[in-house]
Amino acid sequence: MTHIEAETIETTRLVLEPLRIEHAEPMVLVLADPQLHSFIGGVPDTAPQLRSRYARMLAGPSDPAESWCNWVIRLRENHELTGTVQATISPDADADGLHAEIAWVIGTTWQRRGIATEAARALVDWLARQPIHAVIAHIHPDHHASAAVASAAGLTPTTELHDGEVRWRMSIDPRLAEPDAGPSSMY
User: In the predicted model, is pLDDT for residue 6 greater than 70?
Assistant: First the structure.
């Protein structure tokens, strides 16, 4: 059984920092726009609610075969938090090995700047160096911006629906999941 921990991931403009409870207060402001929740559901959390949710996320899943990896997205230039990315890594019921289900949320103020695309690509590149064979995202069929992010990160839509969302998928060559294997090669 492989447990995978979130690590700091850096790009040209971003730092993906492993989630901490202290991120709750500034993230309340990032996630405060009710419009942001039109595709992801729910309403903006208060600081205590977000602290509680982050504590549950950091405690990890009850299933020891799963790993929860969560990051906040920080701009390098001014250190502002702009959103989150996450990966739930678990055994694949349809194949031998692990897969990662990913998601991203970018605060309304920071949208349309390529932040989601840059963060999702960095996350997928990091995942390609882990012992997993597939990356999956579930995207509402009307959420064209998220579909563009998934496509830019290398995922392609399938014909499968999950809770009304399109399942996007990318296969990873498992031979490249070894330490120091270098850049990923998707097929």
Answer: yes
